[in-house]
Specification:
The structure is a single chain. The chain is mainly β. The protein has one domain. It is built from 2 helices and 8 strands. Strand 2 and strand 3 form a beta hairpin. The chain starts with a strand and ends with a helix.
Amino acid sequence: MVVGIPGSRVFVGMITLQAHRVRLPPKYGYSLLFRGKRVLGLDVNPGRHHKNLLLPGIAHATHWQRWPMMDAEPDGRELTFNQWLTEFLRAANIITTFQVPSPPRGVQLRLIVNEDFDRR
């Protein structure tokens, strides 16, 4: 999603959303990018831990990261995809005019290999 300033044609950032299709508990990633750099992040049920650079500790569960420190701030709540999205947009001070559907759940997409391509 592109982020802009109301009444302006200038785009100031982008929001990226990630979801793992089959993992339980669900794994989600929310990022606000400014000039290609992550300035606000929310990792829900991450697959790897996050080691802080400045504050002591390691985050193994859901956590926020805020610019400029980007150290993990744990968040023990259990929310749905859309509830986390609402919290993320609130933290970023972003207002949307549309609904974002929850990501699809189910079987991971398969990579289909063309046999003719493999023979080249």
